[in-house]
Amino acid sequence: MLHFLIKTHKPGTNYKQPHFFILNKGRNSGKPQKESFTNSFVIICKTEAEVEDSFWIAFSLWKSKFWHQHLIGSVIPFIHLAEFQKEFISKSTQLMQEHEEHQKNIEALKLLEQQEKRFNQNINLINDLRKVILYRYCNK
């Protein structure tokens, strides 16, 4: 069972306990990150292991676009803190019921993130090489 506190992040606040941030405005609402966003909630946990578990649950919910159904507002969509707390606690409890399966899913997601990062680095290198070749070719 995860034990955490969810509240609105105030810029400039330093947290002593393990924590991470969740974007609360825009089409990317629900996106977790280790560094703070301008408009974000902070999830404060008791241990780093709880931060890791909660972070990957939040990441999974964000990637699956779970929060889109809870967004309100026509110009800049956002999610209310109370709605986020209710749904995040509910989903966290549900997903942590099978802790071993949860751990396997987290490991798979971490591996996929690493592969995606390497793939993007390779794409950037290919684009850089293409630019160099085109530059040399055009400037003879």
Short account of what is shown:
It contains three helices and four strands, in the order ββββααα. The protein has helices at 48-63, 81-95, 99-138, and strands at residues 4-8, 19-23, 32-33, 40-45.
Can you characterise this structure?
- Strand 2 and strand 3 (32-33) form a beta hairpin.
- The radius of gyration is 19 Å and the shape is globular.
- The chain has a 4-stranded antiparallel sheet, covered by helices on one side.
- The protein has 3 helices and 4 strands.
- The mean pLDDT is 90.
- Helix content is 51%, strand content 13%.
- It has helices at 48-63, 81-95, 99-138, and strands spanning 4-8, 19-23, 32-33, 40-45.
- With 140 residues, it is of the alpha+beta class.
Mean pLDDT: 90
Number of helices: 3
Major sheet description? 4 strands, antiparallel
Q: Quick one: overall form?
A: globular
N- and C-termini, Cα separation: 66 Å
Radius of gyration: 19 Å
Name the helicity range: 40-55%
List the helices and strands and how they pair.
Blueprint (H helix, E strand, L loop, with lengths): L3 E5 L10 E5 L8 E2 L6 E6 L2 H16 L17 H15 L3 H40 L2
Antiparallel strand pairs: 1-4, 2-3, 2-4
Summary keywords:
single chain, about 140 residues, alpha+beta, 3 helices, globular
